[in-house]
Amino acid sequence: MVTGPDEKTIYSVQKETEGRFTFMSHETGTYRFCFGNSMSTVTPKTVSFSLLVGEDTQQARVAKSEHVTPLEKSVMALAEGLQQIQTEQEYMRMRERAHRNTSESTNARVLWWALIEAGALLLMSVIQIVYLRNFFENKRASNRGV
């Protein structure tokens, strides 16, 4: 949940496994972020977030808009776009890392399960061979005695 300086809830969501929320503050003050884990306490959770704190735009720092040439405005817009692309790449790298970790964990579990299954199959084969061998040896011995 995200709460603004006026104690109004800006964003609130529950039971979400993955998500993304972006907002631009229009008021100065203290914003509160609350992350909870009350729905599922069994599995571990990872929360990551990024805060970009600063002035609205570079254009707001300029005394008057007539002092900025169209080329400078274009450069400022490109710089802002580049910052957004870098933020998006960082987010995608973080997601890729999390999904890779999940995939590697699943692969390890599948490997162990396959090894245990192969071992159980081999053990059952050996037990069946020994049982059948003893069964036929007992029958031969009882047929010879008659």
TrEMBL record:
It holds the Pfam family EMP24_GP25L. Residues 1-53 form the GOLD domain. The keyword Repeat does not apply. GO terms for cellular component: endomembrane system; membrane. It comes from the Eukaryota. The chain crosses the membrane at residues 110-132. PROSITE patterns: GOLD. Its main location: membrane. Belongs to the EMP24/GP25L family. This is GOLD domain-containing protein. It comes from Guillardia theta (strain CCMP2712) (Cryptophyte).
